Amino acid sequence: MMKAIKAPRGTRDILPPDTALWNFVEAAVRDVFRAYNFQEIRTPIFESTELFARGVGEETDIVSKEMFTWEDRGRAESDKGQSLTLRPEATAGIVRAYIEHKMWDRGLNKFFCIGPMFRRERPQKGRYRQFYQIDAEVIGPASSGSDLPARDAEILEMLATLLHRLGITHWNLELNSVGSSQERVKFNEALRVALEPVKDKMCVDCQRRAVTNPLRVLDCKVPEDQPIIDKLPRITDFLEDESRKHFDAVQNILTKVGVPFSINTRLVRGLDYYTRTAFEFTHGALGAQNAILGGGRYDGLSEALGGPAAPGIGFAIGEDRLILSLQEKTPAEAVVRRPGVYVAPMAGMNADAAQLARELRRHDLVVELGDENFRLKKSFEAADKAGAKYILIVGENEVKADAFALKNLATGEQVQIGRAELAAWLKARIVP
Ligand code: AMP
After folding, report:
1. How many domains does the chain have?
2. How far is the CA of 90 from the centre of ligand 1 (A)?
3. I need a surface site. Which of 13, 150, 295, 426 has the fewest CB within 10 A?
4. End residue of a domain, out of 326, 356, 374
5. Is residue 367 located within the same domain as residue 388?
6. Cβ(195) to ligand 1 under 6 A?
7. Ligand 1 midpoint to CA 131 (Å)
8. Whose alpha carbon is nearest atom 1 of ligand 1?
9. Are residues 268 and 385 in the same domain?
10. Is 10 near ligand 1, meaning CB less than 6 Å away?
């Protein structure tokens, strides 16, 4: 036998019945987001590399180590040599589209998108090279209110609603404010000074970060470094009036609407255009990869991408991890729609069976259709395998009488139902 080909490292097939769980999640997302007036946007899966270099940041792990990048061999001269990259995240593409289509005329834009992202990471449980994100962004000119704290609170409350709707409990919302870019410059400087006498006792990554980007020291997970990090200055002490008021307002709304949160002053995002609110939802059952989603405000991003000032805030849910935390309680079997009825034709009855199946399917029933070559025993086995609730035999006598025998495969109970009543009878007995 020839050597079989496997899916590339870090990618995986999502198979039925699990796909039913993915669809269940995505249907809930669409439903919940619609109530908050978010609309779907679909941007390309690959973009010019420069977009991510500018939009995510050259010094991030994503851009410096993890992107799938290639040079376009293009047919047209103008394409040749262009550097392209599979998107590692969605925000940059969405903000690019906002600028490209001059969407500021529409006032406040609320977008969402669901799709695959690509990062060359070391694969492990909950971490893949092709993974899926559910992403939402609110963006518009400041005159549309896109910079106001009510927007931040609204998307956080929307996330709490979505998790509740999916039956996911025991999540933690960690919240912080990273201030304005000026406030962060001062904070960074204070960190640099505080790290100077202690950095030699820290891990090699932190020794490097202490010089290049002190903010990122706060992300360190090495246990021995934690006592040192706990004593470092906190961003909250560097917030000035405006940022403090903004952060207070977000917290007030969350408290009023009943969304629990905790402040994590170590939650930061290292890039200049990230401002003010930063957040993460974690879930205990996920182990090391415990972040289900992250997000924050990026008031300077549009300008960094060559657009006009357009404050915005957004988040990305890791759909793979969301599904992992869901699977504990909701197995795919609970949401998959198995056939309500297996239509089994006797010899020579394929055409009649197809006609009957067509009628039933038009009534939104899930129907599996057998074949006249199957013996009755094989039809029963196939119906069982397909997970059908009933089996319906189509023989000459049944067609003549215009009535069919339906057998409940679990109980063995059998009834005779006229063709005209069939669809309604089945629908009343099958949970959609
Ligand atoms: P980020 O864009 O890095 O803030 O990621 C947002 C969310 O996407 C994270 O909270 C994770 O749930 C998910 N995520 C990020 N990277 C991966 C990955 N390699 N595999 C699976 N999920 C991921």
Report:
1. 2
2. 11
3. 13
4. 326
5. yes
6. no
7. 8
8. 294
9. no
10. no
Residue 4 belongs to a domain:
no
Do 345 and 425 lie in one domain? The reply is yes
Q: Ligand 1, atom 10: nearest CA belongs to which residue?
A: 293
Q: What pLDDT is attached to residue 64?
A: 86
Phi, psi dihedrals of residue 261, rounded to the nearest 5° = -155, 165
pLDDT of 8-19, one tens digit each? 999 999 999 999
- pLDDT 10s digits, 219-257: 888 899 999 999 999 999 999 999 999 999 999 999 999
**pTM of this prediction exceeds 0.70:** yes
Domain identity same for 27 and 134: yes
Q: How far is the CA of 127 from the centre of ligand 1 (A)?
A: 8
Looking at the predicted structure, is the pLDDT value of residue 95 above 90? yes
Give the residue numbers spanning the domain of 147.
18-179+239-326
The verdict on the CB of residue 318 being under 6 Å from ligand 1 is: yes
Question: Is residue 13 assigned to a domain?
Answer: no
Ligand 1 lined by 89 (C-beta under 6 Å):
yes
Position in ligand 1 atom list of the atom nearest CA 127: 20
Residues 190-217 have pLDDT tens digits of 999 999 999 999 999 899 889 888 888 9
For tokens 């060359």, name the residue. 120
Q: Give residue 90's identity as a one-letter amino acid code.
A: A
Strand duo 171-177 + 130-139: pairing:
unpaired
CATH number at residue 98: 3.30.930.10
Ligand 1, atom 18, lies closest to the CA of 127
> Which residue's alpha carbon is at the smallest distance from atom 12 of ligand 1?
318
User: How far away, in angstroms, is 39 Cα from ligand 1 center?
Assistant: 22
- Do residue 362 and residue 279 come from a single domain? no
What are the start-end ranges of the H helices in 36-114? 49-52, 61-65, 91-100
What's the CA angle centered on 45, arms 42 and 48, to 5 degrees? 115
Residue 377: inside a domain, yes or no?
yes
Ligand 1 pocket residue status of 316, Cβ below 6 Å: yes
Give the whole-angstrom CA distance, residue 41 versus residue 24: 20
Instruction: Give per-residue pLDDT as tens, 282-312.
Output: 987 667 678 899 999 999 999 999 999 999 9
